[in-house]
Amino acid sequence: MPFDLGPGTAAALAIALLGAAFVRGYSGFGFSAIFIAFAALVTNPLPLIPVVFACEILMTVFQARGIRGYVDWRRVLYMLCGAAIALPFSVTVMLSVGTDTARIVISAIILVMSLVLLSGWTLQRRIGALGHGGVGIISGACNSAGIGGLPVAAFMSAQPMQAATFRATMIVYLTGLDMITLPLLWAGGLVSWDTAIGLVMAFPLLGLGVWLGGRQFLSASPSTFRRFAVMLLMTLSLLGLLRAVKGI
C-alpha cells in the first residue's frame, strides 16, 4: 500500500474518497476539504495532499464536457492571478510550521461567513477584478492546507449566480489552483512515487463518485443547490475546526 497504509485505513480512505468525489460531482467544490479532514482522523494527511490535488485535476477531465459552456473565465483568471501571488509563500510556511493554526483561523472565518449566507444575505454590487484577485490571494494562502476552494465558494455563494455557472467556475478554478500548487509541493519534497500509485488506485472511485454527483446536480433546483453549498461550507468549516483542535 502507498504511504505505508494498513488495509483498514486504506479501506476507510477509499470510502471517504468516494463520498468526497460525489460531493465534488454535485457542487463543484469540497472534495479536498472533506477528504483531508477525514484522512486526518486516521493517518497523517500531509503526504496525501498532492494525491488530493491530482485527483481534483483528474475529476475535471471527467466533468469537462458538461461544464465548458458555463465557466466564467474572467472570474477564474482574476482569482488565479491572486492565488499565484500567495501560493509560494503559503506553501513555504505550511511546510515549515504545519497547518493546524492556519486551519483554525480559516475554518472560523468560513463558519461565520456561512452563517451570514444562511441568513439569506447576498452581495448586491458586481465585484470587479481587484475584488476577485483579492479573494484569489486568500484562496492561495489557504490552499497549502488543502482548503483553498472554501473562501472562493463562500465569496461566490454571496453573489447572484446561476448554479451551473457557480459549479463550473469552481471546478475550473480549483483545477488551475491545484496545477499551480502541485509543482510547489514537489519542490518541497511531498510528491513521490506513492503519489502516483495513490492516484491510480483512486481513479475508479473518482469516476464513479463524480458521475453519481453529476446526475444528482441535474435534478436539483437553484434554491436547493445554494442551500446545499452553504450547508456544505458550514460542515467543512466545523470539520476543519475539529481537525485543527485535535492536532494541537
H/E element order: HHHHHHHHHH
Q: What is the residue-averaged pLDDT?
A: 84
Percent strand equals under 5%
The number of helical segments is 10
Our Rg estimate from Cα atoms comes to 17 Å
Structure classification: mainly alpha
State the helicity in percent bands.
over 70%
Number of DSSP E strands: 0
Q: Rough shape?
A: globular
Describe the structure.
The chain is mainly α and 248 residues long. It has one domain. The chain has helices at 7-27, 31-42, 49-67, 73-97, 100-118, 129-143, 149-157, 163-187, 193-218, 222-247. The chain is globular, with a radius of gyration of 17 Å. The mean pLDDT is 84.
Short description:
The chain has 248 residues and is mostly helical.
Keywords:
248 residues, transport, single chain, mainly alpha, transmembrane helix, cell membrane, 0% strand
List the helices and strands and how they pair.
Elements: H1 7-27, H2 31-42, H3 49-67, H4 73-97, H5 100-118, H6 129-143, H7 149-157, H8 163-187, H9 193-218, H10 222-247
Organism: Yoonia rosea
Protein name: Probable membrane transporter protein
Keywords: Cell membrane, Membrane, Transmembrane, Transmembrane helix, Transport
